[in-house]
TrEMBL record:
Source domain of life: Bacteria
Annotated stretches, region: Disordered: 157-176, 383-418
All copies of domain DUF2786, residue ranges: 178-216
Annotated Low complexity bias: 161-176
Record's protein name: DUF2786 domain-containing protein
Sequence intervals crossing the membrane: none
Any Pfam family the entry gives: DUF2786
InterPro entries registered for this protein in UniProt: DUF2786
Amino acid sequence: MPDADELVANALAAVRGTDVRQAERQLDQLMVGTGAADGTTAVDAALLRRLVRGLGRLWPRGWQPVDVDRITSRRLDARAARLVRAAMAAQRRDQAEPVPAWWDDQLSELGATEGGGSVLAGWASREGLDRADALRAAVDTLALVESLPPIAVLRPPPGTSGAALPRSGGSARSGSPMLDRVRALLAKAESTTFPAEAEALTGKAQELIARHSIDEALLAAGSERGDLPGGVRLSTDTPYAGAKALLVQEVAAANRCEAVWSDDLGFATVLGWPADLVAVELLYTSLLVQATAAMLRGRAERRQGSGRRTKVWDESFLNAFALRIGERLRTATEAATDAADQAAAETAGAERLLPVLAARGEAVRERLDTLFPGVTRHRLSVRDAEGWSSGTSAADRASLDVGGARKPRQVPGRPDPR
C-alpha cells in the first residue's frame, strides 16, 4: 500500500492530467488512506506538508501572502483561499528564519491564524465539507500553489538580507497624521451628494498628498541611504480588467510611478517611491469605487432603446473615466510641483526640487527595466461613443481624494474611441 506522501503525489498528478476518471480514482485512494489505523491523519499531514512546502517555494519567487490569497480566490474560490491562509499560518509557526514585520502584518490582515489540531480537518469542519469534498478542494489548492510562476520580487521575503531590495514598498495602511487627514477627507468626499463639496474636499486631499510626496523627495535627497524604489500590486480582476489596469496606469503616471499589468494573474504592479505608492493605492481604491458607482448611475440613465450592449458601454465608460481622471491628476501634480519648486528656489541654499524629482523618476524607470525587461504595450479599444462621453463627464465630477517564466507583462495604452 502506498504511503501518505505517495498517495498525495498520485492524486496531484491525476488532477493535473486530463483523465477525469483517473483523478477520481486517485481521490478515492486518498479517502481510503494508507490502510493503517492512523491512515486518515497521515494523509492530512502529508497534504499540509506539501502545501506548506509549496508556499515556502513561492516567497523567494516574488509572491507575498496577499498575492497568493488573491489569486487563490480568483482562480478557485474563497473556501480554497481560507485553506491557504490556514497553511500560511502553520508555516509561519514553524518558520525559523527571520521574518520582516510587514510579512506578519499581511498575515494578520488576512486573518491567517492557526487553530489547534489538524489544519485540514479544522478547515473542513469550519467550511461544512465532508471528507471527499475537502480532499478534492485541498488537492486543487495544492495544484494551484505549485503551478504559480515566478513574479517580480518587490520586497525582501523571509530569510533574506534584503540587499539590493527596497526597504519599504509603501502601504496605504501605513499610519501617519497626514494619511489620517487624507482618509477623513476621502470619506467625506465619497459620502457627500454635492459635487462642489466633493471637489473641495478632494482638492484639499490631493494638495496634502502632493506636499507630502515632495517633502519626502527633498528629505531623501539629503540622506545617504541607498534605497531602491519599491512596489505594490493592485487587483485588476474581471469584469473590465483592462479598464481597471488603465486606471492604475493613469493614477500611477500622475504620481511619478510606473505600472505594469499582469493580465493573466489579475493584478497590476506599481513601482515608485513609498510616499508616491501610498498615493496611488489610496487614489486607485477611491476612484474605482467612484467610477463603478458613476457607471451604474449612467447605465440606468441611458437612452431607451439604445442598441449597444451594456458591456460595451461599460468598458467605454470606464476607459474614458480613467483617461480623464489621469489628465486631472497630472494637472494637480504639476501645479503642486511648480509651486514647491518656486518656493525652494526662493530659499537660500535650498535643494532645487525638479532635479531631485528627475533623478527619482529615472530610478523608477531603471527599476522597471530591471524587473520587467520584456514589457509590451497593449492598446485598448473603445467602441461606444455614448459610454465614452458619459465616462468623461463622470470623471470631471469625480473627487480627487487620496484616501518568471511567463509572457511579458503588459502596460495598457491609451484607447482609441471608435
